[in-house]
Specification:
Helices cover 67% and strands 0% of the residues. With 92 residues, it is mostly helical. Helix 1 runs antiparallel to helix 2.
Amino acid sequence: MQNGAAKEGTRRTAWRLLLWSTGTAALWFAGGVTVGTARAVLWTLAATVDFAAFTLRYPTPRLGRVTASEWPVAAEHLADRHRQLLSSPSAS
């Protein structure tokens, strides 16, 4: 269970991610409904903004940047995701 400060940090991190994801969603969706070079440009721009936001730790007005203590990391979750990525599909 999280204490009050940890819950507030998690809440602030969620708001940062929501704001940045909402902002780039328009680029992802616009790329999805266009074709050709426009799609490539929009998706490249969306990926670049997403990567930059992560690299800069999601800077957001009034909320600042994500600190290491606010970033929720669960080793079990990461291990499970890597297992899913690296395991071969089962034969059905």
